[in-house]
Amino acid sequence: MTPQSEDFSAWYNEVVVKAQLVDRGPVRGTMVIRPYGYRIWELLQADLDRRIKEAGHDNACFPMFIPESYLRREAEHVEGFSPELAVVTVAGGKELEEPLVVRPTSETVIGEYMAKWIDSHRDLPLLLNQWANVVRWELRPRMFLRTTEFLWQEGHTAHIDEADAMRETEWALDTYAAVARELAAMPVVPGEKTAGERFAGAVRTYTIEGMMRDGRALQAGTSHYLGTNFAKAFNIQYQDEEGALQYAHTTSWGMSTRMIGGVIMTHGDDKGLVLPPRLAPYQVVIVPIGRKEQGEATAAEARRLGAAIKSMGIRVHVDDNRPQLSPGFKFNDWEMRGVPIRIEIGPRDLADGVGTLARRLPTAEGQGKETIPLARLPEELPQILADFQAFLLARAEAFRNEHTRAVDSWDDFGAQVSGGWALAFHCGRTECEDDIKADTAATPRCIPADGPAEQGDCVKCGRPSPYGKRLIFGKAY
Amino acid sequence: MTPQSEDFSAWYNEVVVKAQLVDRGPVRGTMVIRPYGYRIWELLQADLDRRIKEAGHDNACFPMFIPESYLRREAEHVEGFSPELAVVTVAGGKELEEPLVVRPTSETVIGEYMAKWIDSHRDLPLLLNQWANVVRWELRPRMFLRTTEFLWQEGHTAHIDEADAMRETEWALDTYAAVARELAAMPVVPGEKTAGERFAGAVRTYTIEGMMRDGRALQAGTSHYLGTNFAKAFNIQYQDEEGALQYAHTTSWGMSTRMIGGVIMTHGDDKGLVLPPRLAPYQVVIVPIGRKEQGEATAAEARRLGAAIKSMGIRVHVDDNRPQLSPGFKFNDWEMRGVPIRIEIGPRDLADGVGTLARRLPTAEGQGKETIPLARLPEELPQILADFQAFLLARAEAFRNEHTRAVDSWDDFGAQVSGGWALAFHCGRTECEDDIKADTAATPRCIPADGPAEQGDCVKCGRPSPYGKRLIFGKAY
Ligand SMILES: [Zn+2]
Ligand SMILES: [Zn+2]
After folding, report:
1. Which CATH number do you get for residue A306?
2. Do A63 and B99 touch (CB under 8 A)?
3. Burial B219-252 (b: 16+ CB within 10 A, else e)
């Protein structure tokens, strides 16, 4: 595999295929998510879906074909998405009278039904979510990160006023940050986007930004306060307590299969994937060693141990069905596929009732490979896995901090964004953002929610900053 | 609502909208599945997904855009699906060189990847499943039953030989029958389809058929043995133990949102939906009664009881937030929406610690509405719900038996299929099936797996039957 330091892109493109996460689809820009990759998505989905439901949202399913005329009703929205649309023009053997857009996102079609379902203030808030595939035609596709078709959830809600809609927008952002930290071990930075980076049709866009191991930023989830833009375009109105008609305030928010790319690029190394236990299809793999009778004895012990570990609610795989492969090959294979914990059981271990436990990476305390009594393992593994999960988060946080620096001069800025994030003041003008991008390929990733109050002048043009804090700049995926 | 006996179709179209299961989509033939309908799908999906995984299948996700050329590789397949295809011809602002079909089913694209992933007999069986949306352009759409876009799971597997592939085909059929019986309380009949009713590209097609309350049949799930048809079209080959190249034998099987239509038409009545507890979004609804202080006291008791019932793992809803509606309106509303059990708590009940329990239908023992001590309710409800579930299955089974009859003359045949199913002998010729359909609108639904061995002559043309048993004939959805 190409080393990360040599060509990070090449490393990524190789590892996603070798680890059997994904294959290129038959149509340019599409992907086949293979079982090992899809399981990561299912684990993320189960947790996020539970949080969405516990906060009072209901899942629904809206059609993926949207009449072209719907998109045109919100001017900024159609302008933002037009270049990326896939259009059905023929169906049932006939040319269609009105072409159908395959949804790039569902604000418009859901807006149409919100207008139908909402009459009174009693119908608000209306809290909807859907798990769906969406299509945005990609000229420079990248597996998981930018594909023509991808999977996501999209929340769409309607509220009585701005304050309630903003509470929802912030709830979604906080939830995404928690999922990223707790499941993906990604120490993301939440914050607002600048005007130049806003969602097409939004009043305010919020994001969580993660740092990848090449120092670039990945936008891993977004939450939008749409004001009354879509309410006016689709006539989403309600009668208030006095009987007067008012426009609802709406929000939308999404997290996608892009998160899988984030996991790969946050934790992976030159040996391949490193998966956080909470998203690992196999948290533990047991490899029995030995040939013939000895191999049968260790395989039997591996299966017994596997059953005991499984009964603790741990996802475990026993690699006892590939006699044609050497133990060394198997060790490398599971390391490449990112399994957090590997247990090796050799013929000489059996008499002593021990095995070797190998972590995918040595944890902070220097624990890599150790001999461990098998009888105690099922009880000890939950803590070992939790420690490994915490270790990955701390490692990613340390990496991000090492590669983030406050810069106040234009010379320092260019050097800093070549391999990390720059904390810098900015004037807030979109033209100035464009200049910075043209010169360095870096963009403002967000106005960090937790950034300390500080005044200063634009790192590029010297005009005073209106934000009252430094922005994060970096090259983005 | 239109009574079922007056116009069953009108009843169906009204109830699906009034009960807030679904709305018409913006494009002809599409549907919006609303939260109350989508929850039914989620409950079915969770159970079926668990069974699919326990039997060793892995979920994956294949692209929905399929190059038109893929479909042409299997001649029968393309012929069967061509009239129903939706085609993307423009994307990213340009006319595409090769039009893309939106998947009507995924045998072709999955076949392409099976060929890539399978090398050796060690790679078999390959057991894949995906949960996806598919598109088949519908000229006579009907919510849930025939819509342009619908949701389903599609299993796709590859095997070493016919025997192993047939075991898989039968496993899927048995699983569908179990899900229909145990969750949907639909006493479906499993069996093989005749040649005239086979899936386009299959060697053998199996189905589960349920009887709806108008006597028609609903095909509620299908399982196909595809032989080596797709293996030859897509070159799915493996090296056997001797090193020789062999074609794999493949299967496919699917169950869809059509099942929701089956639930509605199997159990519903003139008051509206009747939902089996295992698929009911709300298994129990509690309606507190009374105005002002009295209303506040019963609502408090309803919430306390609701929490106790919820802690038993029961899906319960407390209707305490619609003071503008009368109790009678609420009772009718929840009956129309099919909630299995309703608990009413009135002001006079509080002192006695009792409430009224009303079943959506009186069960076989004549239990409809009864006074019940609230303290015992959380413990007793699981059994009450299980009894109601069993009652619905028995009721549907009795209905089906009453409306199924063996017929041996053509005169009797026409009368029988006008409101039920006919068990009849058939010659096996597709032209004769076509004659029967032209005369009566009835088709052979299946060769019932459990039908007793019996010899006879075709009910239509008098030629001898090759099946060794009677077929089920009926009008189909
Ligand atoms: Zn500036
Ligand atoms: Zn005949």
Report:
1. 3.40.50.800
2. no
3. bbbbbbbbbbbbbebbbbbbeeeeeeebbbbbbb
